[in-house]
Amino acid sequence: MTSIFHSGLSKDLSLILNDADDFNVIIQVGENEHVKEFHAHSVILRTRSPYFKSALSNKWITKKNDMIIFNKPNITPLVFDIILKYIYTGELDLTRYQDEKILELLVASDELLLEELFKHVQDYLIKKKTTWIQENFVLVLHTVFKLLNCKKLQDYCLETICSDPQSFITSKNFPLLDKDILYRLLERDDLPVEEIIIWECLIKWGIEQTHDFESKNIDKIKWNNENYKALKETLNRFIPLIRFMEISVSDYIVKVRPYKAIIPNHIHNEIEGFYFNDTIPKSIIIPPRIGKSHIESKIIKTKFISTIINWINKKDAKAIRNKNDPLYNFDLIYRGSQFGIDNNSFRNKCNLRLPILVLLKCQNTKKIFGGYTPVGFYSIDSINGLIYSEDSFIFSFVDDCIQNFKLSRVKSYDHAIYNNYYYGFNFGGDALCMENWNLYANGNDYYEQNINDDNNIPYIIEEIEAFRVVNR
């Protein structure tokens, strides 16, 4: 059996760092009046850091009196002191340092290829510094988007913004956002802000980023052709990301149309045709933004909701939304892993006379099953447990590809829903029904088609969710 004495080793290496007289590397860190000299050992630096293994090779080093001289002006002395102690001892206590220094440490550990340290600092910021990140989004975003390996923190920042975006995009710092980061944000489908607000904030950002505008020239009445031309050049790559079809006619006329000079002609013509001639755009086909606040599902991805909304609106899966089509919020009212997967648990939460969407994930299959009822699962007018509905439908698709879907709308309206205590829910007899933890998806004459290839084989429900569908 091998005995481990890491604590003693760490202590001895710390003494070597602080008191050794046999160092062979002098590292000058910082710049101007903030320069500090550190002494280190090349063998330890090269062993612990791939960066130093390359940088201290014979091809690159500068020697003076048999001493390796190395300069790192872009790292502050405090941050390098943290790094050097980590390299020698493997110890780190981030609670001792200011948040800005921890962010600097993230950048420095990435540059020095200290993968373990980089991962730890990134996770620490995400888990322990949520409030500080939210208060300093622009600083953090501009820092982490320069680091190729920082995707986890990049995604965390964007997802945090999307969870509550209004305060950020309307803040005084939003116009300072880097153009590439802004593009990443605006292209997301899960940015739950009214599109007209996104448009107005984009205009403010463009004015701030366009050099032809001075603070005294913010008034649009005073703009000349050169101003519009410069703003158009600034916003050219962002205009196609705006979901114009989500903007009301009145807002379009008052807040968008005055800026027609900055909108590419083909986009402007399609928008005008959409609003005033009811023509469907051919190139502006970005789906509506469906924010995470609209559906908190562990079963389906957010992007699939636009397809389900189309089905609710009696349209094809890939149809472009008409300006008069309703949009919906999806409020979670039941989750099996939280309340229990059985008939009584489902009925206690979902026997309502309200529109409800049900989603199911089952064991040993990649298929997702679902059903929608505009009248809920309870009705005082039902006879023999039957609930009348003209617009109910059931569906299935593979969890990562909704294109391979099967949609089946109700045919026999008086048999759309069975309200029977033997089941949690029951669409059309056994077209799609829950019997405790069993799910049956069998074809019958009450719905258009069978949504399942395995007739009469019950699935075991792994997770089930029900959402109240609210017109917004």
Protein traits:
BACK, Serine Threonine Protein Phosphatase 5, Tetratricopeptide repeat, SKP1/BTB/POZ_sf, BTB domain-containing protein, four-stranded mixed beta sheet, alpha+beta, 472 residues, TLDc_dom, Potassium Channel Kv1.1, Chain A
Give structural notes.
The chain is an alpha+beta fold and 472 residues long. It has three domains: 5-132, Potassium Channel Kv1.1, Chain A (2-Layer Sandwich); 164-277, Serine Threonine Protein Phosphatase 5, Tetratricopeptide repeat (Alpha Horseshoe); 294-471, no CATH class. It is built from 18 helices and 15 strands. The strands form three sheets. Strands 5, 6, 7, 9, 10, 12, 13, 14 and 15 form a nine-stranded antiparallel beta sheet that branches. Strands 2-1-4-3 form a four-stranded mixed beta sheet. β6 and β7 form a beta hairpin. α8 (137-144) runs antiparallel to α9 (151-163). The longest helix has 15 residues, at 195-209. The termini are far apart. The mean pLDDT is 86.
How many strands? 15
Low-pLDDT stretches: none
Count of the separate structural domains: 3
**N→C terminal distance:** 67 Å
What is the helix content? 25-40%
Mean pLDDT: 86
Radius of gyration: 30 Å
Category from helices, strands and their pairing: alpha+beta
Strand coverage percent? 15-25%
- Gross geometry: flat
Enumerate how many helices there are, as a single number: 18
The profile of the biggest β sheet is: 9 strands, antiparallel
Pfam families: BACK, BTB, TLD
Domain BTB: 23-96
InterPro entries: BACK (IPR011705), BTB-POZ/Galectin-3-binding (IPR051481), BTB/POZ_dom (IPR000210), SKP1/BTB/POZ_sf (IPR011333), TLDc_dom (IPR006571)
Domain TLDc: 298-470
